[in-house]
C-alpha cells in the first residue's frame, strides 16, 4: 500500500507493551481453538468480559423481524448507530456484544442498535445480508434518518455489503458514515498478513478462518458476496477504520482503505501497533483501546452529511 495521509499509525505505548507481553503466554496456547458452532458459547463469554458501561440502558427489541439490543445512554443525540457484530458469520450475538457496544453508545452519546442477524451454518449466505438490509430499512421506517453503520470483523463485511446495496439500489437515504473495526474485506484470504502476522496474531489461524467462511457460504459461489477489493466503491459515505498491527486481517483493512481512497471516498485508516483483532473491546487491558473508543465516538458525533 502506498504512503497516504489517510493512514494514521499509532505507536505502541509502554503500558500496552507490558500488557500485551503478559497476555501472550495466556492466549497463545489457545490460538485457533474456536471451531464451528460449538464455539459460540466460548466466543460470547470472551466478549462479555468487557466491563459494562455506566449509565446505559439495554432494551431488547425486534426491528423488521430481526431481534437485537438497543444500548441507550441517558442523554442521546438524534443520531443512531446500527452495529453489526463480529464472529466470522458463525458466532456472536447482540447480548454478547452489549457491554462493548454500550461503551460506544456512552462515549458517543448515541443510541446503538446491535442487530442479531441469523448465523451460519444454519442460515448461510445471504441470510445475514437480508437481515442487515431489513434492519436498516426498518430504522428509516421508524423515522430514524440520521444513522451511522458500524461493524467489526465479519460485521464489517456485512456493513460493506449493506453500503454497496444502498448505493447501487439508490435507497432513499444513505448512512452518514461507516465505522469498521478489523473488517473482513476479502473472503479469499489472499492478504499477505495472513502469513506475515501469523506469529503475532494470538487469535486465529488461516485454516480456521477458511473453515468458518465455508460455513457462511454454504452452497453459494464464493463470488456472490460483495467483494470490496474488486468492485467500485464510488459513492460510499465517509469511512473510518481501526485495525491492529498484530492481526492477520491487517491487510484486509489496508487494501480496502487504498481502494476507497482511489475511488474518492472520504476514508481514514488507523493502524495500532501491537494491537490484536477488535482491540477496542479490551478497554480494561489496553490504553490504546480507550483512545480508539474516544476517536470512534468523535466520528459518530461528527456532523457528516451526504451531499
Question: What does this protein structure show overall?
Answer:
With 307 residues, the protein is an alpha/beta fold. The chain has nine helices and nine strands. It has a single domain (7-301), classed as Rossmann fold. The chain has a nine-stranded mixed sheet, with helices on both faces.
Question: TL;DR of this structure?
Answer:
The chain is 36% helix and 17% strand.
Number of strands: 9
Query: Which overall shape is indicated by the principal axes computed on the Cα atoms?
Result: globular
CATH topology: Rossmann fold
Task: Find the structural class using helix and strand composition.
Answer: alpha/beta
Helical proportion, percent range: 25-40%
The CATH homologous superfamily is named Alpha/Beta hydrolase fold, catalytic domain
Question: Numbering strands along the chain, what is their spatial order in the largest sheet?
Answer: 1-9-8-7-6-4-5-3-2
Notable characteristics:
307 residues; alpha/beta; Rossmann fold; nine-stranded mixed beta sheet; 36% helix; globular
List the helices and strands and how they pair.
Blueprint: E1 7-10, H1 14-27, H2 40-47, E2 56-63, E3 66-73, E4 80-84, H3 94-108, E5 111-115, H4 127-141, E6 147-152, H5 154-168, E7 177-181, H6 193-196, H7 206-217, E8 239-244, H8 250-262, E9 267-272, H9 287-301
Parallel strand pairs: 1-9, 4-5, 4-6, 6-7, 7-8, 8-9
Antiparallel strand pairs: 2-3, 3-5
